Amino acid sequence: MTETAMMTPEPQRMRALERANEIRLARAELKRRIADGEVAAADVILAPPREAATWALGELLTSQRRWGGTRCRKFLSQFQITETKAIGALTDRQRRLLAAQLDHCASRELQLESRELQLV
Fold this sequence. Notes:
This protein is an all-alpha fold. It has one domain (13-119): Helicase, Ruva Protein, domain 3 (Orthogonal Bundle), CATH 1.10.8. 61% of the residues lie in helices and 0% in strands. The N and C termini lie far apart (86 Å). The mean pLDDT is 87.
């Protein structure tokens, strides 16, 4: 009377590896889009895609042009946030604060670039 279900799923570790590869590829694509200016880091912080939820905040910030480790640490130290904090672990207040400051930095950089072009 009792029947056992015969399932032959692939091992859990293989599924985990496939999922990790999907996430890694999605993050690499997102990093490229941020570096190319197609996506703003502030937008990713405000509404992180599923694959970015466990991504370290420092990796996101350094994927922007002209952002290295030192600039990232200095930026985040203003808010007492470490660069290893996951994007998904940010509070709503932290998200809004970081996004607003990133937008401010971006607009200031655009002003500096336009001044440099005028001088040339």
